[in-house]
């Protein structure tokens, strides 16, 4: 009909129906499949939450055992993938490697990635869940010039990742269970967040009926940006900048308010939350615990708390309802765990993976799904006559 709605950033468009995540931004509520995030953070673990998101219900013990076993047996990358890492420069950002390698994985499974075949979908889920931490850890090893460490499948999901990241020989790196638990918790808190930019990218690309690896690779690229998952890296860089400016938080708050200055407080504000992000509440508590143990003298935690306090008592931030989001304190924990800043967004990607998979699966099975194809309001030139190049 030509009748369309102009809605930049899709701020008031519901692009799908979904049973997966409930988010009430005014009240600061987040639930996966009906379960409050606080309960899952306290009592569940990442693989159980992944199962819940992907299959819709909490697993029985035998369902969970099978799920874990299937993920465990797929953790190895095809040996030919090693050369893939060699081709990148040493300074390659690990998010670039992660997305390229995830799309690249598809080349090894071309006969088994039909998005409409139930068995293909199931095995693709295991492969993605299993191999992403291996790719992530190897991208880091590449950047520091160390040998790749193969997965040690007796370890838990987060411990295996830490082993591949920080181990330097075949035996398992001695993983502190508390650290593995903190990492697992961060994964849970990142596991889904309804129709954010990366999930929307996965759904949109997936709506073309491409294979799941390609759709998820698009999500990884969308997550990379500093306004989305890349904010966790940007927060740490900002806190270090404040430290180097002698801890002058006030001037940074002033800059964030200045409309002529493009600077924003990274880790603050959210499209949907107009209240404290419930994930940030849990992450702040965890940061407090982890940092007390691992990095008691990190000045950045104090700076972060000061910055939060300054912003939350400032009229600009109060009026615009800008609160700390999930990315504000997560980077401090990753840093305390020994992860380099460039890896922070990769950690977000590992955590968000089950959400992307669940949303892709839901999109594929929804009879209302059509190829994503928004309209536009054309504002360009009216018809004009072509002019030969010598006459321009
Ligand atoms: N610092 C200063 N001012 C801000 C900030 C901020 N962090 N965030 C929003 N504002 C202002 C913004 O300038 C605008 O003011 P005005 O109405 O006068 O033009 C108002 O608040 C509304 O902001 P918006 O940019 O229209 O909101 P949005 O929904 O389009 O963007 C956002 C949301 C998260 C991109 C934005 O708040 C932002 O850039 N935050 C910093 C980056 C960040 O922390 N991103 C992580 C998001 S949470 C998890 C994730 O996705 O990774």
Automatic annotation (TrEMBL):
Active site residues according to the UniProt entry: 270, 327
GO biological process terms held by the UniProt record: tricarboxylic acid cycle
Gene Ontology molecular function: citrate synthase activity
Keywords: Transferase, Tricarboxylic acid cycle
Catalyzed reaction equations: oxaloacetate + acetyl-CoA + H2O = citrate + CoA + H(+)
Cellular component annotations (GO), alphabetically ordered: cytoplasm
Transferase as UniProt keyword: yes
Coiled coil regions, renumbered to chain: none
Record pathway: Carbohydrate metabolism; tricarboxylic acid cycle; isocitrate from oxaloacetate: step 1/2
Family assignment from sequence similarity: Belongs to the citrate synthase family.
Cited NCBIfam families: cit_synth_I, PRK05614.1
PANTHER family on file: CITRATE SYNTHASE
Protein name: Citrate synthase
Organism of derivation: Euzebya pacifica
């Amino acid at each position: 009909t030509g009748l369309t709605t102009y809605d930049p950033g899709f701020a008031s468009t519901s692009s799908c129906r979904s049973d997966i995540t409930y988010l009430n931004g005014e009240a600061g509520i987040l639930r996966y499949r009906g379960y409050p995030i606080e309960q899952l953070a306290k009592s569940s673990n990442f693989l159980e939450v992944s199962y819940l998101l992907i299959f819709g219900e909490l697993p029985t013990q035998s369902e969970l055992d099978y799920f874990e076993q299937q993920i465990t047996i797929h953790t190895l990358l095809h040996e030919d993938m090693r050369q893939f890492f060699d081709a990148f420069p040493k300074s390659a950002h690990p998010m670039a490697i992660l997305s390229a390698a995830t799309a690249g994985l598809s080349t090894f499974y071309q006969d088994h990635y039909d998005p409409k075949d139930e068995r293909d979908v199931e095995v693709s889920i295991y492969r993605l869940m299993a191999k992403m931490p291996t790719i992530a850890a190897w991208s880091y090893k590449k950047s520091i010039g160390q040998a790749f460490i193969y997965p040690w499948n007796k370890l838990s999901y987060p411990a295996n990742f830490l082993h591949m990241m920080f181990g330097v020989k075949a035996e398992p790196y001695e993983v502190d269970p508390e650290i593995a638990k903190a990492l697992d918790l961060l994964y849970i808190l990142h596991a889904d967040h309804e129709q954010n930019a990366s999930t929307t990218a996965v759904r949109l690309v997936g709506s073309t009926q491409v294979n799941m690896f390609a759709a998820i690779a698009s999500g990884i690229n969308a997550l990379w940006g500093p306004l989305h998952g890349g904010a966790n890296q940007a927060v740490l860089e900002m806190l270090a900048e404040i430290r180097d400016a002698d801890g002058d938080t006030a001037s940074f708050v002033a800059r964030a308010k200045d409309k002529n200055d493009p600077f924003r407080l990274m880790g603050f504000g959210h499209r949907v939350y107009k209240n404290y992000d419930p994930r940030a509440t849990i992450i702040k508590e965890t940061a407090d615990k982890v940092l007390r143990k691992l990095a008691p003298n990190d000045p950045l935690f104090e700076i972060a708390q000061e910055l939060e306090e300054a912003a939350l008592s400032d009229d600009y931030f109060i009026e615009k309802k800008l609160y700390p989001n999930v990315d504000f304190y997560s980077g401090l924990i990753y840093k305390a765990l020994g992860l380099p800043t460039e890896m922070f967004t990769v950690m977000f990607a590992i955590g968000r993976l089950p959400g992307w998979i669940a949303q892709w699966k839901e999109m594929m099975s929804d009879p209302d799904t059509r190829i994503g194809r928004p309209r536009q309001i054309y504002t360009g030139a009216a018809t004009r006559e072509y002019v030969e190049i010598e006459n321009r």
